[in-house]
Amino acid sequence: MLTDKKILVTGGTGSLGKVLVKRLLSGELGMPKKIIVFSRDEAKQHSMRIEYLNKKDPTDEIIYNNSKRGLEFRIGDVRDPHSLNSALKEVDIVFNAAALKQVPSCEYFPFEAVQTNIMGPQNIVNAIQELDLPIETVVGISTDKACKPVNVMGMTKALQERVFLQANMKCQSTRFICVRYGNVLASRGSVIPLFHEQILNGGPVTITTPDMTRFLLSLNQAVDTIFSAIKFANRGETYIPIVPSAKMTDIAKVLIGNRNIKTVITGIRPGEKIHEILISEEEAPRAIKRGGYYVILPLLPELRKIQIKEEFLDREYSSADNLMNLDEVSMILSNYDLLIDKKNESEELIR
Quick check: is 145 catalytic? Predict the structure, then answer.
């Protein structure tokens, strides 16, 4: 699938980008010829480069050896057409993970979000069209906040989806597809690292509202969704993982355990939803099941290759549905090694 392909990962130094690059280097979809990590943060690039040069885990021998041969780091910004155009030359596959994703930050600096989350994708499309680049596939990484958006981050991500969707009509030789998923467990800036820090400091643990629910999936599940999309998605389709969800109060209870730590309700932050939606009621009639995923067929009829003859969703797909109980939340956090280990807790408190 990706054997001998040249791949560009924008935002490749982020939480998702790093796991995506590692999985690409493992060769599970074929061994790429080159992977270009494209981002504007030289410190993160330097840290990532050193991490690959100083191999620690012998089980990662293949990955680290491959990185020495095929991993390139390039400073640039999706906002800047010049640096982006240079990076896109001779590339076969693009994963667009570059984004401003902090909800409150996007509310206070909305046009910054517009430039990265909308103009960045448009710059990719423009480059492919105007330079006639022979790029095979572009994968847009989206979020549940793009569905029925109430905040700037979600609004800009929703427009990223539409920019890439319509690009299938502009660039006939390139397949533009998207993936959309919810909260990634323990990713940078997410709530679980915050809860960990608050617990290790003796509390209190802050919760915005008792009713809040969120979809939960691991970084590897996010990459699984991306890989399924690149293997099976038709032009203009959006892949959605079928994942569990939980109340934030239950996540806090499981992480606190039997510690004498209080929780405090702080109120919803600017632009925050109580429940997240991955598929809206308007999208449901275009949403079908394919393997372990929902697939939203293209909104534009010119791009819809298959007619909706199979069973489709009859209602929206919300994080308020099918909530896990406390035992299930505990199990999923334990499976992903996200519970606070007593030994590590003691060492952290000593430091």
Answer: yes
